[in-house]
Design brief:
Shape: elongated
Number of domains: 2
Radius of gyration: 30 Å
Largest sheet: 12 strands, antiparallel
Strand content: 35-45%
Distance between the termini: 97 Å
CATH superfamily of the largest domain: Lipopolysaccharide (LPS) transport protein A like domain
Structural class: alpha+beta
CATH class of the largest domain: Mainly Beta
Length: about 150
């Protein structure tokens, strides 16, 4: 048997083992870092909210006003602080804001953050609002800007 062929086969064998172990090392290291990334994503998604994506409604005889938000925290048995992308929607209008205190028992909602009211022919920008009488009455706070079509 040829001496050089014998050395080359050993060299090829060791190079093959080295390449396979290198790929296994890369695969396991990537897998560990992926699990770390997934854990970090889960930690970021956990917030101090009591309710994730809460949905409520204000009911009266003539209409319903649906309320949605990204987060909610209980202030007491009746009041809930709704936060992040809070939206009130009915057949007649919609209101968008960032923070609202909603009273489930009294069917009222109050905000002291910038708000946008939209209806068919009216747009109102305000520094807050108060919805009461089961959604029949809305008062806008602060400097309000009204656009009529």
């Amino acid at each position: 048997m040829n001496f050089f062929l014998h050395i080359n086969s050993k060299l090829i064998f060791f190079l093959g083992i080295l390449v396979i172990s290198f790929f296994l090392l890369i695969i396991f290291s990537k897998q560990i870092s992926l699990t770390n990334i997934e854990v970090e994503k889960i930690k970021k998604n956990l917030t101090s909210a009591d309710i994730a994506e809460p949905k409520f409604a204000i009911n009266n005889e003539s209409k319903k006003i649906y309320i949605t938000a990204k987060e909610g925290n209980f202030l007491n048995n009746d009041e809930i602080l709704l936060k992040k992308n809070v939206r009130f929607k009915s057949n007649d209008f919609s209101i968008e804001t960032e923070r609202v205190i909603f009273d489930r028992n009294k069917q009222t909602a109050k905000s002291e953050t910038k708000s946008l009211f939209k209806s068919k022919n009216t747009t109102i920008f305000s520094n807050g609002f108060n919805i009461y009488d089961k959604g029949d009455k809305i008062i806008f706070f602060g400097k309000s800007f009204v656009v009529l079509k």
